[in-house]
Amino acid sequence: MKKEAFTPYQGNRYPEDETAKRAADFREYMDKRRSLRFFSDKAVSKSVIEDIIMTASSAPSGAHKQPWTFCAVSSHDIKSKIKEAAEKEEFVNYNGRMSEEWLKDLEPFGTDWHKEFLEIAPWLIIVFKRAYENIEGNKMKNYYVNESVGIACGFLISAIHNAGLVTLTHTPSPMNFLQNILERPENERPFLLLPVGYPTEDAVVPSLKRKGPDQVIQYYD
Predict the structure, then answer these.
(1) Strands across the sheet containing 123-130
(2) Looking at the predicted structure, is the pLDDT value of residue 3 above 70?
(3) Structural domain boundaries enclosing 51
């Protein structure tokens, strides 16, 4: 291990009682996060979007390869193309691709193939995973790509919530149309699409209950 390759850790350190309070407060804050389908067209500044994305890009990744590209779209023309292509795929999904069980599980959410929010939300953030790096014509391997990009998306969703904005994890399948519309290189594959903006004044969410600690945690003391 080369000593010159490292720098002193400058993270925060808190007294035990403050650590407990911060953990509880953040748990309560994040529990208020919800996925929304009701977006206002109110503008969100480019600088806010950049800060949100760069927070996501601070996520850990395999060998620090940072195998992601975040495409931030505010162009109405491009959003319209994405909406049209997404609805085309979603129509097929709701009318044949999805199993009856899947459709039944979606009933509480009241969703269908219409995706107006893709045009209304002021921004669409499309996350691409970089399967490999193309450096001067040579393929350079990235590691734990799906895991790394998945963690970055978690950071991204948290940063959006922290800014007082809302989003929805949208995964039209297949998503190859995003690569074509945005003219992304061969080494990039669409991973997740997130509309980002403010909620409408009359926004509603399904009445759902999250699993409790006894359902998601197994302690080994």
Answers:
(1) 68-73, 123-130, 188-197, 166-167
(2) no
(3) 42-200
